[in-house]
Amino acid sequence: MLNNLTQRLSRVVKTLKGEARITESNIQDMLREVRLALLEADVALPVVREFTARVKEKALGQEVVGSLTPGQALVGVVQRELADLMGGDAVPLNLATQPPAIVLMAGLQGAGKTTTTAKLARLLTERQKKKVLTVSCDVYRPAAIAQLQTVTAQAGAEFFPSSPQDKPLDIARRAVDYARSHHFDVLLVDTAGRLSVDEAMMREIQELHGALKPIESLFVVDAMQGQDAVNTARAFHDTLPLTGIVLTKLDGDARGGAALSVRQVTGAPIKFAGVSEKIDGLEPFDPRRMADRILG
Ligand code: GDP
User: Which sites bind GTP (predicted)?
Assistant: First the structure.
């Protein structure tokens, strides 16, 4: 995950740690490396510019204290700024509402929506001991409903059946009634994906959002898409009040730029990261831990 970025940055870190003095010139050298590393990782250019400007400002302005070497202090600045870039503190899933807490899953086809719905069901069932129901409103691909049924069973959660003949809104309403009368804590609503952002899709998901009033609307996006991931996230964020983003396939050889810029560009927090195809391959996203990992 983010291997190139990690390699490049850890080279910078190694050099810096040995520096006894921070000068304008070695800051410039360091920033050049950081800028290259980020661009190579496919981080959006304006994000890179702002990031390096902030690191520079903090590095030049900082007092070097205690037993830290100046080089280490500088590395600390990069680390904190990286974490801040990805959102700073982790933002957990919000389920604080009258049950069932409804979570709407949105995203393009192939992003990993159905898989993520089941992974989330599993995480909530196992770790938080929640009673979870899943439902598919994807009436366009009959296989999608069957797929959710299969993965929900793997997750140990309950599945609410739907049929391609039904209307998405009707399915959603029935599922909410069922979840309510059977005392479910959480209802995860998988929706139809399209190959690209189109108006009909946006309208449908807006209608679902209006009817369901979910406490969480998560946008699931494939991190391997790099810059495109950020653009699609922004398009969705413009039409739907997203409460969070799930970055999938962070285990692939993604250059990882999406992880670094999606927060900055959309303003929506990354709440989870998909790290394998398996049912337990979903982790709550923690910007600070991620920054540590990236810096090796
Ligand atoms: P949907 O069309 O958005 O519902 O996408 P799917 O859930 O069907 O996922 C598409 C493909 O991506 C499937 O082969 C999944 O196994 C795979 N996938 C989803 N999330 C991850 C992940 O975090 N890592 C990896 N390696 N594969 C994933």
Answer: 107-114, 190-194, 248-251
